[in-house]
Every structure is written in C-alpha cells, then in structure tokens.
Amino acid sequence: MGKYSIKELEKLSGIKAHTIRIWEKRHKIIAPARTTTNIRFYSDDDLKKIINVSLLNNNGIKISHIADMTTDEVNQKVLEFSEAKNDVAIHIDQLIVSMIDMEEESFDKKLSNLILRFGFEKTIVEIIYPFLEKIGILWQTHNITPAHEHFISNLIRQKIIVAIDGLAIPPPTAPRMVLFLPEGEMHELGLLFYNYLARKESYRTYYLGQHVPHDDLRGVVEVHKPDWLVTSITTPVNEPVDYYFQKLSRDFPKAVICASGLQVIRHKGQKIHNVYCFSTAAEFKALIKG
C-alpha cells in the first residue's frame, strides 16, 4: 500500500498542494490518515481519486459537482473523457492508475488502444516515456515495489518486441548495428526502443540485451563487424563512464558508438572522437539518419 506526503501527491497528480487541501477540507474529496506522530499521509486510493478528480475538473466539471458523484460515476466519466480526448496527460495518468493496482488486463488494454490510436512510436515517445518518469517518482518515494516495476516493464517490453517483429529484416548488405547494455546494467526498455527505431531505418540489428561482458561484446563485433554500437547506462556501472567510453573507443575504433541513459546524460567528461551521446529518441533518430 502506498503512503504519500501531500508534496508527493502534488508531483504525481499535477495538482497544487494548496488546491488538494481545499478539496479535502471544503469538498471532502479525500480524507488523509495520520501517523502516530500526527503527520498526514495519503493512500493509493487517495492518489487515484485525485488523479481522476483532476481530470474531470480540468475538463470543465465543477469540483462541487464531482464531490457529489459516486466512485462509479467518476470512473465512468473518466472513461468517456479518456476515449474522447487526445491530451496525452490524461492517458499517462490513467496508466498510473492501472499500474498502482497492478491491473494487467486494464493496463494492457489501455496501452494497446493507445498504440492503435496514436501509432506505436508516438505512444512510446509521448506517453510511455513521461509515464516512466512519473514511475520514477513512485520508486524514489518507495511507493512502488520491484514487483510493480517488473510488472510494468514486462508489459511494455512485450509491446516493443511485437513491434520489432512486425518490421522486415534488412538485407545483409544493410548497415550493421549491435545494441547492448554493459555488465551490471539491466534497464533495457530504452535500448529495445532504439532497436525498433534502427530496424525501421533499415539497419541490420543484433540485439544483445542486458548485462553483456566486454569480452562477449568483442566476440560479437569480431564476427559481425558492425558499423554502429549502441548502449545505455542508467545505473552506475563497475567503472567510470569516461573510462568505459575510452575502452569502447580503443577496442572498436571503426564503429560509431552511441550512448544514452541517466549516467551518460550526467557525464561531463572529454569528447571522444567516435563516441556520441544522446538523451532522446529524436536525437538518436537524427544520428542514425546521418
């Protein structure tokens, strides 16, 4: 069960703490619990209700009217707005509601409908990426468990793999790209999406996935002789990013090396001639299009 401060509720819902307090006191929208030391906190149900109330209020329904609605009436109205509106913020919040309850069928249905409605690439870039950023807030505040993270990651991973499988395999003469995560790195959703983007641009990709030892990477490069190497470093690896880039550049001097991830974005080291850092999918697409 989640346990949120009012500031955490503000970050996740987008509603100012001052407004939440007004809704709470004047309209009885939610009723926070208190710790033994009299500190107020909010539950998963409170978070879900604030998200849904915010959606209705932002779409013209007065808060006094929402306060008189039953939970079923609120949920029905939210569903109507979700199906009618193109505002991605609505869909991000509804994915969070499904994630909190670990409702696989609900989450999968919403994600599938978004892909049909907006297209795969737009759904990932404009909805799933911001959604994962909000999930990061939940993780940092200890309001989701590793089970939640695995639940969500696996469902999104399945969608990306299906999308990749739907693309034609480029011919052997196409430019070659190896995609991998260094030893100790397990966050692969971004790398999977880069694999999709590269395959869509007619690159012949070799996806190695998580936790690839450097000697194994050398072996793959020796066999397939890729033009490009793509990696992502989200968590701190066994060696400084600068040193790791130097090692990649030294061992694979003929390849274009592209790197992303939180540790790469924070990296402020010296420029290495064949290493290119990027932070967004749009930047990656620009790099591989030349």
Structure summary:
The chain is of the alpha/beta class and 290 residues long. The chain has helices at 6-13, 17-27, 44-58, 63-68, 71-84, 88-100, 104-118, 120-140, 146-165, 189-200, 214-224, 241-251, 262-266, 281-289; strands at residues 33-34, 40-41, 176-182, 204-212, 228-232, 256-260, 275-277. Strands 4-3-5-6-7 form a five-stranded parallel β-sheet, with helices on both faces. A two-stranded antiparallel ribbon has the order 1-2.
Which descriptors apply to this entry?
290 residues; alpha/beta; Multidrug-efflux Transporter Regulator, Chain: A, Domain 2; Rossmann fold; 2 domains; five-stranded parallel sheet; two-stranded antiparallel ribbon; 59% helix; elongated
Distance between the termini: 48 Å
CATH level-two architecture of the largest domain = Orthogonal Bundle
**Content of β-strand:** 5-15%
Structural domain count = 2
Q: What do we call the CATH topology of the largest domain?
A: Multidrug-efflux Transporter Regulator, Chain: A, Domain 2
Please summarize the sheet with the most strands: 5 strands, parallel
Going by helix content, strand content and strand pairing, the class is: alpha/beta
Biggest sheet strand order reads: 4-3-5-6-7
Could you tell me the number of beta strands? Answer: 7
Number of helices: 14
Question: What helical percentage do the residues reach?
Answer: 55-70%
What's the level 1 CATH class of the largest domain?
Answer: Mainly Alpha
Q: H/E order of the elements?
A: HHEEHHHHHHHEHEHEHEHEH
What form results from the Cα inertia axes?
Answer: elongated
Mean pLDDT, all residues: 89
Radius of gyration: 22 Å
Low-confidence stretches at least 5 residues in length (pLDDT < 50)?
Answer: none
